[in-house]
Amino acid sequence: MTLADLYQSDGCTISFELFPPKTDEGIDLLCQNVERLLRFQPQYFTCTYGAGGSSQRATLEVLKRVKEITQLPVASHLTCVGSTVDQLCDYLQKATEMGVDYIVALRGDPPKGTDQFEQTSGGLQYANELVELIGKKFPDLGVAVAGYPEVHQEAPDAKTDMDNLKRKVDAGADIVITQLFYDNADFYRFRDDCQKAGIDIPIVPGVLPVTNFKQAQRIAGMCKAAIPANLEAAMTAVESAEDQFHVGVEHARQQTIDLMANGVPGIHYYVLNKSDAAAELLDGLSIQGPVS
């Protein structure tokens, strides 16, 4: 089953994103949470890596463990940052040998302390070039690319951002996974714009259940994702960490219910290696993904 095929059913395909822990204890805890998340019948897991490729090897080890535990497809993030074409191909070869099924192909963020991406000598400058490279050298790997409902922070306007996304799709992407957002109206507007631009592959919303207001503010600042007034009011109206957790999770649950009612092909959850928030927001919801 290809990556695109996972989104061809009438149900809502669920996937979860992880990141590589820094300690053996963290990896053990991650694996425990992955096992808990299996009850929601995810179709695959993805794993990021650190800035500039600092934890690429750890990413592959995490994905190997996850695949052993779940017997599900797994996807590795891959960016253009700090890598030559040969190094990218070397990573893709290792990923393939370790059983990685899909790649989340990204240009990558500028190095810490800078606000401008710099192309590595002998490397790639744009994500669409990475998608093309994967399609040419590793055609059996499914490819997801990123979309930005509230416009990429480096894009001068929404049209330029959409043109960039169209280039990635035309280069051979199978699906688009969006950056997190807190207001579903932003996603629906983005989805409509994708349709107008001739993008006809699955557009998968990315949802992060925020569990405290400081976290929401920090992530919103990093991703340029606006916090709706009702969410801010609800989270600041309570004081305890437990109450803020439930407010944030309930907001993500209502996002999920509304997204499903509006026909999204799937939802990608940024779970931050934990399972409590995802378990609470998904508990009791009727989600039926494709039959493998």
UniProtKB/TrEMBL annotation:
Required co-factors: FAD
Classification via PANTHER family: METHYLENETETRAHYDROFOLATE REDUCTASE (PTHR45754), METHYLENETETRAHYDROFOLATE REDUCTASE (NADPH) (PTHR45754:SF3)
Keywords of this entry: Amino-acid biosynthesis, FAD, Flavoprotein, Methionine biosynthesis, NAD, Oxidoreductase
Pathway: One-carbon metabolism; tetrahydrofolate interconversion; Amino-acid biosynthesis; L-methionine biosynthesis via de novo pathway
UniProt superkingdom: Bacteria
Name of the molecule in the record: Methylenetetrahydrofolate reductase
Family label: Belongs to the methylenetetrahydrofolate reductase family.
First-tier enzyme category under EC: oxidoreductase
Enzyme Commission code(s) on record: 1.5.1.54
Organism, as annotated: Neorhodopirellula lusitana
Catalysis performed (reactions): (6S)-5-methyl-5,6,7,8-tetrahydrofolate + NAD(+) = (6R)-5,10-methylene-5,6,7,8-tetrahydrofolate + NADH + H(+)
Record-linked InterPro entries: FAD-linked_oxidoreductase-like, Mehydrof_redctse-like, MTHF_reductase_bac
